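To: structure subgroup
Subject: Chain for Friday's discussion

All,

I'm putting the inputs and outputs inline so they're searchable in the archive.
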Amino acid sequence: MGESIRVAVSDADIDGCYRVMVQLRPHLARETFVERVRSMADQGYRLAFLTAEGDVRAVAGYRIIDMLRTGRMLEVDDLVADASARSSGYGRRLLDWCHDLAKREGCSVVELDSAVHRADAHRFYFRERMHVLAFHFSRTVM
């Protein structure tokens, strides 16, 4: 069983990504995960996953959107490799897949946000020739 990258289409595909996605997004509940991903599809959200030896090893949630600032772009909402398989190149291969998809789709850039406390992720993104472009500000709605 080799390695492959696919876009999650079926509920089983989406559910199969949960075990890895929850490592990045621990607030997600398995009972509502498929429904939540499906509801985000109307906003362009897609879930790609890398499997190796039959197991999901990395997951990327992404959207292709148009912005005045960039034109067409691929925004990576979520990128996570299974903790038990980190440093195996799975995250890099999935990020490269996103970059190749962006090229095919006529995007000018691939962008993602990474929380300020995720120093290991930042080192990975710098190694992958990404750079800090801006601050991302947030204000909770009460």
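Points worth raising on Friday:
The longest helix spans residues 90-104.
Helices lie at 11-24, 30-40, 90-104, 119-127.

D.
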